[in-house]
Amino acid sequence: MNRRDILKSVGLIVGGTVIGADAFLLNGCTFSEEQVGLLSSKQIKLLEEIAETILPHSEKSPGAKDAKVGPFIDRIVSDFYTTQEQQVFLEALTKFKELDFESLKQKEKEAILLKEEKYIEKNDQYTFTNQETGESFETRQPYVMIKQLSIWAYLSSEVVAKNNFNYLPIPGKYTGCVDVEADTKPIYWKQGSRGAFRKI
Hints:
Elements: H1 3-24, H2 41-54, H3 69-80, H4 83-98, H5 106-122, E1 125-129, E2 136-140, H6 142-156, H7 158-164, E3 189-191, E4 197-199
Antiparallel strand pairs: 1-2, 3-4
């Protein structure tokens, strides 16, 4: 094998590694719109409908659907909620689905959420009983979970941050190097006999 053949082979190996790395090695690093965690795409759509009722679109501000709160909430529930909290969350979504929340008129949706608000004012804790194991535990009300996550997702979204807040990616001027003047005094510290440091 001559030198030219070796260089061609090395070039093909390196090129194949670089091109194929995305398909094999870095596949977990990419995020697609279709990727869902715990929730299905229908549950995310239902969740966005509930969130849109809480945070509706107006002339001055985007709505929850504009902020795409569904995938954010799905990620938080999937990755950070305990298994028990996930069960409570899914049960709450099932109740909204049984109400056929998505097909209701806006005033009917608002009435349901207002009823939930009044209920949680009197009952801040929720007792969940697993039908299969019989295990029960107390947690926050399911509607509180949905509302808190909706607001968090909304306020964390790019569209709300850019359109409704004073968006300053860097909070101030950073000056890396400052000239030292004649009046600038360095601070020296000396360790005393008891181990404490004192300024000289």
